[in-house]
Amino acid sequence: MRSWLTYTAARVGLFLAAFGVVYLFGARAWVALILAWLVSGLASYVLLSRLRDQLSTQTVERLERRRGANVGDRLTGGASREDDLQEAADPAGDERPADEAPAAGTDTAAPAGSEAAEAAGSGDGEAKRDEDAATAAKDA
Q1: In this predicted model, what pLDDT tens digit does every residue of 44-69 receive, in sequence order?
Q2: CA-based Rg of the chain, rounded to a whole angstrom?
Q3: 12 is in which domain, residue-wise?
């Protein structure tokens, strides 16, 4: 904040000094304002570069401090939401690595819309009915 005030005060001071010089040379009204603006802009580019660099450095540091905490919070929140979604999708809590083969006897149904799912026909419901019919035929 102090750098901003110092730089702004220096810019205003340069403008007033330039306006005074231009006014002494006979420029009046809008012409004096425009010439003073141009002269003070050029002078501040050369004379105030050190103050401008300090202001820029402090501004960037302040933004990085603010942004640094927020990025970490966003990453933590995103990971938490992802974990919640994965737990909701797998209520049994089956946590096996992706490259590990499923245990024998577990359901390995193919995702909907895949060729394996289409080849299976209507899905598990039809196979279960066939098994029930075969069991009922044995019992009879």
Answers
A1: 999 999 999 999 999 999 888 877 66
A2: 37
A3: 1-92
